[in-house]
Structure formats: C-alpha cells, structure tokens
C-alpha cells in the first residue's frame, strides 16, 4: 500500500491545504494529514483543535486520516510505515526550503520519497499566517478557508 504523510502545522487549515489533500488522496492509497506539535511556537489553535478541524473538513474523504506528531518527521514516517511525504509548493520562493527539506529526508532515509504538488493558482498566495493576520483584523477570509474554519477563527478572535 502506498501510504503518504502530509505534514504541517495547519494553523489553521486553508483551502490551499485542502486542495493538496484532495489531490494527494487521489494518487495514494492512504493519506495521513499529520499535524505538527512544535513546542517552540505558540499556535492560535491547539493541536487538538487543528486535528478536529481537519477531520471535520475531510470527513468525506475515505482514504484520509488525521493524526499529530512531534519530533522528527522521519521518526513519524517510520512509526507509520509510510513511504511518501506529500508537500505543496505555492511559489518559487517555497522551492529552496522544500529542496533542503527533501534532501535532508533523503539523507535520513533513502527509502522515503517526497512528492511535490503545485498549489492551485487560486491559492498560490495563501498561507495560514496571512489568513490569521486578516482574520485578526476583522477581514473576510471566508473564501480562503472552509466555512467551519472561518467560524472558528471568528470565535478565537472575538474571545481574545
């Protein structure tokens, strides 16, 4: 079975992420969306909130699973017996980082392949950081995130 892991912070998940998930799920047998717990960052949403939001927006995708991890991605890949890492590329500016990332993964485990998918042009500018910035200042992000994420953002910023 071709098992791929799509790692990220997903704070929050955007329509760009969802596009990569939908398309990635079509080319592998199973796709695990793995939410990174990074103790060096303070996310807007907890790991539990992020995994819940992703589960809810991917509920219609039978071969998508949502999980979380901390530490090295290569260790998580081994734990899950995965053989593919799915990564999205928005623009040429992403390429340098992603090349370094893929090269380091290959150094740590030559059996793991990194699959890059170009983001749909509609989402080439989109990042979770931009979404949070706009939402924080009361801007409309309803066409950038799934509706339940839009509601979760409004609730977070009303209560902060």
Automatic annotation (TrEMBL):
It catalyses: (R)-4'-phosphopantetheine + ATP + H(+) = 3'-dephospho-CoA + diphosphate. InterPro entries: Cyt_trans-like (IPR004821), PPAT (IPR001980), Rossmann-like_a/b/a_fold (IPR014729). It is found in: Cytoplasm. Substrate binds at residues 9, 41, 73, 87. Its cofactor is Mg(2+). Pathway: Cofactor biosynthesis; coenzyme A biosynthesis; CoA from (R)-pantothenate: step 4/5. ATP binds at residues 9-10, 17, 88-90, 98, 123-129. Its EC number is 2.7.7.3. Belongs to the bacterial CoaD family. Homohexamer. HAMAP family: PPAT_bact (MF_00151). This is Phosphopantetheine adenylyltransferase. It comes from Marinithermofilum abyssi.
């Amino acid at each position: 079975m071709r098992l791929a892991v799509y790692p990220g912070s997903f704070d929050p998940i955007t329509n760009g992420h969802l596009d990569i998930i939908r398309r990635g799920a079509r080319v592998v047998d199973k796709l695990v969306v793995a939410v990174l717990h990074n103790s060096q960052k303070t996310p807007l949403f907890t790991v539990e909130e992020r995994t819940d939001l992703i589960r809810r927006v991917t509920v219609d995708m039978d071969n998508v699973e949502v999980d979380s991890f901390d530490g090295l991605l290569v260790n998580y890949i081994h734990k899950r017996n995965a053989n593919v890492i799915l990564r999205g590329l928005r623009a040429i500016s992403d390429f340098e980082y992603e090349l370094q990332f893929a090269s380091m993964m290959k150094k740590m485990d030559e059996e793991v392949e990194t699959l890059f998918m170009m983001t749909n042009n509609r989402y080439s500018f989109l990042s979770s950081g931009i979404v949070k910035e706009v939402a924080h200042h009361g801007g409309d992000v309803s066409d950038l995130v799934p509706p339940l994420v839009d509601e979760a953002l409004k609730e977070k910023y009303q209560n902060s």
